[in-house]
Design goal:
It is found in: Cell membrane. This is Sugar ABC transporter permease. Belongs to the binding-protein-dependent transport system permease family. The protein has a two-stranded antiparallel sheet with strand order 1-2. The radius of gyration is 23 Å and the shape is flat. The protein contains twelve helices and two strands. It is mainly α. The chain folds into two domains: 1-48, no CATH class; 52-245, Orthogonal Bundle (MetI-like fold). Helix 3 (53-84) packs parallel to helix 7 (145-170) and helix 3 packs antiparallel against helix 10.
């Protein structure tokens, strides 16, 4: 009976996936301007994309962005979750504090970071000025603009992943920790030989979701740099937007 129910669910949900995919693939093989009827042109659209140097720049930038953000976010969020895994009022307050970015508008967050990055009166350069370090052009220097956007992505992604890791850590039975402590295991041993192995499914889930999120990055580019300077912060999604809507 359960198998028939699963088959029924597939019949309901699969069309919602395959029908849009089929329509999109058909349009990809057509010349279409949203006004006239689509004209079949085969693989011409794909040929144009692969011959477009901006596409390859966007692909490289998306890869670099993910390379900056994904490992940093996964490692930091796990370590912070380990530190927050204590049942006291202070640490419960910290959990709420870390979760705030998740419920804050991403557009508002990007505008705040835009102020942070301002070379003349931004917070970051003000702090650097007190340290006698010359100002940095965070968003207008092509060498560091993409990394600056990655900083925003790291900060915005930490909170949600911390909650996921924290939930996983709190689901590990305390008897495991107690037995390990009685056997003389150190905190490092408990972390690497108990917590990490049991957290593997959640770590894998966070890793996959963070890769997807990084590849889909758009808002920071649109609000802060518009792909500039030059094409140094063009990403795949921004490239699609520029070609599809402009």
């Amino acid at each position: 009976m359960e198998e028939f129910q699963n088959i029924g669910r597939q019949f309901i949900f699969l069309p919602s996936y395959y029908i849009p995919f089929g329509i999109s693939f058909k349009l990809a093989l057509s010349k279409y301007d949203a006004v006239s009827e689509p004209q079949y042109i085969g693989l011409e659209n794909f040929r144009k994309i692969f011959q477009d140097k901006i596409f390859w720049i966007s692909l490289k930038n998306s890869f670099l962005y993910a390379l900056y953000v994904v490992p940093t976010v996964v490692i930091l969020s796990f370590l912070i979750a380990v530190g927050l895994n204590k049942d006291t009022k202070f640490f419960r307050f910290l959990r709420v504090f870390y979760f705030i970015p998740t419920v804050t508008s991403s557009v508002a967050i990007n505008f705040v970071w835009l102020w942070f990055f301002n070379p003349e009166y931004g917070l970051l350069n003000t702090i650097l000025g007190f340290l006698w370090i010359k100002k940095i052009y965070w968003l207008t220097d092509s060498k560091i603009a993409l990394f600056s956007l990655a900083l925003v992505g790291m900060w915005g992604s930490l909170s949600y992943n911390i909650i996921l890791f924290l939930a996983g850590l709190q689901n590990i039975p305390s008897t495991y920790y107690e037995a390990a402590s009685l056997d003389g295991a150190t905190k490092k041993d408990i972390l690497f030989h108990i917590a990490l192995p049991l957290m593997t499914p959640i770590i894998f889930f966070v890793l996959i979701m963070q890769i997807i999120s990084s590849v889909q990055m758009f808002e920071s580019v649109f609000i802060m740099t518009r792909g500039g300077p030059g094409y140094s912060t063009y990403t795949l999604v921004y490239y699609i937007y520029r070609n599809g809507f402009n």
